[in-house]
Amino acid sequence: MHLYKYIIFIISLCISLEISAHGLKFYSTDHPIAQRTSYSVFVHERPVFKDYFDIEFNMALYPTVEIGYITRIKSGDPTKIFNLFFDVRGDDILFRLNQEGKSVLISMPVNRDEMTKDHWFKVKIAFDLKNDEIILEIHNKKMTCEGVSLPDEFRPEIVFGKSDHIIDVPSIAINQLKVGNTKSYVFALNETKGEFVYDQEGRLCGKVDNPIWLINEAYHWHKEACFSSNTEAGANYNINNNEIYYFNRDSIFTYNTKSKEITARAFAERCPVKLSLARSFIDDAHDKLYAYEVYHDPPDDGPTIASLDLTTLTWNVESYQQLSMQLHHHDSYYDPEQNLYTIFGGFGNMYYSNKFYTLNTTDKRWEVLDSLSGDVIYPRYFSTIGYLKNNHCIYVFGGMGNESGEQIVGRRYFYDFYKVDIENKQVQKLWEISDDEINTAPARGMVILNDSCFYTLRYPESVSNSFLKLYRFSVKDGSYQILGDSIPILSDKITTNAHLYYNEHQSRLYVTVQESKDDVSSSLTVYSLSFPPVTLEEYAGIPTGSSRIPTMWILVIITLAVATTIVAVIVKIKHKPENKESVPQTILPTTKTEMISETAQPNSIFLFGDFAVFSKNKRDITYMFTARLKQMFCLILQYSDAEGISSKRLSDLIWPDKSKDKVKNSRGVAINHLRKILNELDGIELVYEKGCFKIVTNSEMYCDYLKCMEIISTNTVNKYRQQFLNIIHRGKFIQFFDDPVFDYFKQDVEYKLENVIQHQIEETFSARNYQTTVSLTEAAFNIDPLNEMALSYNLKSQFILKRENEAITTYQKFITEYKKTTGENYPHPFRNYWR
């Protein structure tokens, strides 16, 4: 990313903190009374208004509960309480402004579809104190009630949702709340958590019980549904019907993204097309789903296109035409006005394609879109395309391929963007960027809503277990932002794919992720994200409390200061000589399987994390240790670096309440059992000398505790850093016992570890070995979950490694533990660490 992009990015970030709003959603009447949402706008000090004031906000409806009270406005006079009530009645929504306990002042029916087509609609209640009038505006309708006895001065107590005895709370959300006249209080309602609400000037004004902060839905992808098929299957989204389809040759799953209902239906007759890639598109005007294969491999003369009537679930063969080659990972779009389906790119027969093929649903034939002039789009697959209705242009972004189109030449990743004018058959390359995100490919389904920006998913498709990330690119110059957290995807097989959709009516992005382990069976997972999505900085860096940024001018000043700093840092980095010595990055086991593999070695005992013992034959014999035998072994080992532990001391600690005779017998039985178990290992022996028990080991035997103490005592952490990290990364020392008997043992070990780990954190961070720094900080959290030094180095390292999601997870876990331990909120906001 060029320097100017960094500056633009930071300026846009600061501006977005002012103007972005995602709102407050309410727990409604379908929840217990104590769990319903109540939002008091002014709880500390209520302003006084003279002559006039209004309450204005945006509102969105949700289908769960469609009746209830939106807001109440109280004055000092109990006879002058006003409330706004609504009731969904078929195609209309009836809003009623009431003077509570007296009469309906305004009754306003509004067409539901017209009002909710953009999800959010405007509501305004104006109090003309001078003329004793109340004006109600909903969407584009306005009504006035005259002759209302209003006070000359109004100190409003404004409550949304549950209020006193008013407990009928509808399923709604509000945002961009503004209260005032010439002086207004503006509430973006973009908090991420908590009960306190601040206005745009950073003043603590309100409080909300049981909030749902919608900005979380604009950052965290929500898993909606999962399906699976044992045979080849395809998926598509009928946005107008809010239905996602997952189909194979025998049946179809339907998931309604609005009602959340799932249905499964079998076809009367099988799909006539032999599915392989199982590509499809929706003709919503005729309520049809078209399934197609551009090429049969192995060769087959059967149908290649068939349409499914989504009402009757009957199939109809549409075409037998095949193209000259398979087109894996081509992308597509459907133009309903021209009944035209267009595909671009793809891979097959060891060639990449750069052709556009169009299919008219009237004549059902593929035609090459030729005679294109202008810039050349090199052959590729894994590109994404979108269509902008207002200029009838196709847009193409990214992919993998090469100039010749031959696979044998090798492939490279493209980060370029083209505009294809369909009417004039003109191709224009708008830009190409040199991306820091090495080897990432876009998923299907570019979302382009206007000529200023587009949205696409990208991921490193060559990595088995990778993650999809959402990007917003500028159409003008290719500058971009990463939005939301990530979606996991297993990309081992070529039939694995992901597709991005946008539902304008729901103001929501949807993603279907279809994964396969054998290119035959597959699973489909549906995810969604509130629109517009937010960046990590917007989500995690939103100021709270007294530290909020008070005005836009201060934001601009800070922006310029930060931009200047970045200029200086980047210039310094550019002129800094390269360090030709590569910094080794520590690799730790990240999955349970890998951890077991690391642990499973012959003649080994592990006391960090889960207790584990492996015999001379590498057999797991952990099960042979009862709780009493674990306790005895750890106690004897604790004292083995000296003369050992006496029989009496051992007996007093393990059997404090037993008589001497019983203790002697129990101790003898337990010692014999422990000896027999240790005989399963080479290099370890339980001995009894001078009235004391001790554990004696040699080089054949491995114990993580003994090895860790050896590394620390000989000051060889740098030499054996990988082994040291493997040990402490397993977990807390003797975490399997809470017995006070081991308190001193644990404290002694943790004290030694803490000093070493802290030094190693600082040293590895200075050496730019950030992955190792992260691993060390995680080990530090095992010792002290509230280690602020570890938190600081962890977050800084995660940001440098571009692991924003992991950083926010670490921070959230830390502040949760802090709250649980201290009973107070952690005083340092996330943005402090980011900056």
TrEMBL record:
Gene3D superfamilies with a match to the protein in the record: Kelch-type beta propeller (2.120.10.80)
TM region positions: 552-571
Source species, domain of life: Bacteria
GO molecular function terms noted in the UniProt entry: DNA binding
UniProt keyword Transmembrane, yes or no: yes
InterPro entries: AfsR-DnrI-RedD_regulator (IPR051677), Kelch-typ_b-propeller (IPR015915)
The keyword Transmembrane helix is assigned to this record: yes
Keyword entries, A-Z: Membrane, Transmembrane, Transmembrane helix
Gene Ontology biological process terms, A to Z: regulation of DNA-templated transcription
Name of this protein: Uncharacterized protein
The organism of origin for this protein: Jilunia laotingensis
